[in-house]
Design a protein that fits this description.
Helices cover about 35% and strands about 25% of the residues. The chain contains nine helices and 16 strands. It has helices at about 1-25, 35-45, 105-125, 145-150, 210-230, 270-290, 310-320, 340-345, 375-390; strands at about 55, 60-65, 75-80, 130-135, 165-175, 180, 185, 190-195, 200, 235-245, 250-255, 255-265, 290-300, 305, 325-330, 350-355. It has an eight-stranded mixed beta sheet with strand order 1-2-4-3-5-16-6-15, sandwiched between helices. A four-stranded antiparallel beta sheet has the order 10-12-8-13, covered by helices on one side. The chain has a two-stranded antiparallel ribbon with strand order 7-14. Helix 1 (about 1-25) crosses helix 9 (about 375-390) and helix 7 (about 310-320) crosses helix 9.
Length: about 400
C-alpha cells in the first residue's frame, strides 16, 4: 500500500532529515544571501539521485522528479530557505552559529521536509504518473518576496504547474497534527512609512513650535478609524503602527517624528482604497496643524487563497495519513506570506504543520529568539507532503 510505503521511508530517512535541519539551523542566511544553503540543498538532491536541477532567483533552485508519464500532470512542492535577523537565545546543540541571524520562522523545517518528500517521491517514481516540481525559494522574509521573482523567471512553466502545495510550521498546533483552511487564509501585507516634519523647540513654549509628537498622536488615532469606520465589517483588516521615533526630551520638542506600520486585509479592491485613505488622512491632519509630511504605503504580498478543490484533496490525504483526530480546521491568519503569489497564479494549498510540545517547553511563537520545534514533526513534514502530492497525482 502506497501510504505504508511513504510512512516506512519517512521513518528510514528521519535521521538524515533531522541532521540536515540541524545543519541548516546552525548556519542560517538572510534573504537573498542563501548561497551556502543553496549549495547544501543541491548536494543533498544529487546525493539522493535527483540531477535535473536548475538555479532560479540566484539563490533558489528548481528540480524535477519524473514519474512514469511525465507529461500527465505537474504538482509543485515549495519550501523557503531564508532566515531572520534575530539573535537566537536557545541553548541547543544546533543553536545558530551566525550572530544575529536565526531560523525563527521554521524555514529550516520547510526545506528539510521538502528534501524528505523529494527522497520519498524519487524512490516511488515508478508508482505515479506525472511530474513533481521542487520549488526551493529564497527571500520569503523580504520584499519583493522570492516567490514573485521565481514566478517572473518562469518557475511555473516548463512544465506548467497544475497544482502547488506548501506547508508552514505552526507553534499553536501540537506536533503530530496539521491544519487546513479553504478559501481566504492569509492577509495581504503592506508597509506604511510616515515622516512628519514640524518645528522643534523648547517644550515650555509650544506656541512657538509645530509639534510633530502631538500631530503623530492625532495621525495614529485617525488611522485606526480607517479600519473601524470605513472598512466593511465583512472584510477583515488590521492597521498597526509598530515604530515611532521622535528624538526630543522632557523639555524638547523635536523637528520630526518617524513612524512605521503595517496594513493587512483580504480584499484587493478595499486594499487599494485603504492605501489612498491612509495617505489622505496623514496629509490632511499634518497640513491642518501647519506641518508637512512624507508618507508611503509600500505594497507587499497579496492575500493567500487556498483553492477549494486542491485543499480538499490535501485535507482528505491528511485524514487518511494521520487520522481525522489529528487534522484541524484553521481560522483566517492575518500574517503575510509570499506563497500567496503562487496561489494567485495556480490552484494551491498552503497548510500548517504542528510543531508544539508543551511537555518539552516548545511553545515559543514564530519570529521570537526562543522559537524551536519538536523534531518529531519532521516525519509528518516530509511524509504528508509526499503523500499529498501522490494523491493529487491520482496515485
Amino acid at each position: 500500500m502506497l501510504k505504508e510505503q511513504v510512512k516506512t521511508i519517512s521513518e528510514e530517512i528521519y535521521e538524515d532529515i533531522r541532521a540536515f535541519r540541524r545543519t541548516m539551523h546552525r548556519h542560517p542566511e538572510l534573504s537573498f544571501k542563501e548561497f551556502e544553503t543553496q549549495k547544501r540543498i543541491k548536494t543533498y538532491l544529487e546525493k539522493i539521485g535527483i540531477t535535473n536541477i536548475k538555479t532560479c532567483a540566484e539563490t533558489g533552485l528548481v528540480a524535477l522528479i519524473e514519474g512514469k508519464n511525465p507529461g500527465a500532470k505537474t504538482v509543485a512542492l515549495r519550501a523557503d530557505i531564508d532566515a531572520l535577523p534575530i539573535q537566537e537565545e536557545n541553548k541547543t546543540e544546533y543553536t545558530s552559529q551566525n550572530a544575529g541571524v536565526m531560523h525563527a520562522c521554521g524555514h529550516d523545517v520547510h526545506t528539510s521536509s521538502l528534501l524528505g518528500a523529494a527522497t520519498i517521491l524519487h524512490r516511488l517514481r515508478d508508482s505515479f504518473e506525472g511530474t513533481i516540481k521542487l520549488v526551493i525559494q529564497p527571500g520569503e522574509e523580504k520584499l519583493p518576496g522570492g516567490a514573485s521573482i521565481m514566478i517572473k523567471e518562469g518557475v511555473l512553466q516548463n512544465p506548467d504547474v497544475d497544482a502547488m502545495i506548501g506547508q508552514h510550521v505552526m507553534p499553536l498546533i501540537d506536533a503530530g497534527k496539521v491544519g487546513f483552511r479553504k478559501g481566504l487564509y492569509m492577509a495581504s501585507a503592506d508597509e506604511i512609512y510616515i515622516t512628519i516634519h514640524g518645528k522643534g523647540g523648547h517644550g515650555a513654549h509650544p506656541h512657538m513650535n509645530i509639534d510633530p509628537i502631538a500631530i503623530s498622536a492625532q495621525v495614529i488615532t485617525a488611522l485606526q478609524q480607517i479600519v473601524s469606520r470605513t472598512a466593511k465589517p465583512a472584510i477583515p483588516s488590521v492597521l498597526s503602527i509598530g515604530k515611532i521615533i521622535g528624538l526630543g526630551a522632557t523639555n524638547i520638542i523635536p523637528d520630526k517624528v518617524e513612524m512605521e506600520g503595517t496594513f493587512r486585509t483580504f480584499n484587493e479592491e478595499w486594499r487599494m482604497e485603504a492605501h489612498d485613505k491612509i495617505v489622505h488622512v496623514v496629509k490632511t491632519i499634518t497640513a491642518a496643524f501647519g506641518a508637512t509630511c512624507d508618507v508611503e504605503v509600500r505594497k507587499g504580498y497579496p492575500f493567500l487563497y487556498n483553492n477549494e478543490e486542491k485543499t480538499e484533496t490535501a485535507y482528505q490525504a491528511a485524514v487518511d495519513y494521520l487520522g481525522a483526530e489529528n487534522v484541524e480546521d484553521l481560522e483566517i491568519w492575518p500574517a503575510g506570506e509570499d506563497f500567496a503569489y503562487y496561489s494567485q497564479e495556480v490552484p494551491s494549498c498552503f497548510y500548517r504543520l504542528g510543531i508544539r510540545n508543551e511537555a518539552k517547553g516548545i511553545t515559543s511563537m514564530l519570529h521570537t529568539p526562543t522559537f524551536d520545534i519538536d523534531e518529531s514533526a519532521l516525519k509528518i513534514g516530509c511524509g504528508l507532503m509526499a503523500y499529498t502530492a501522490l494523491r493529487e497525482l491520482g496515485a
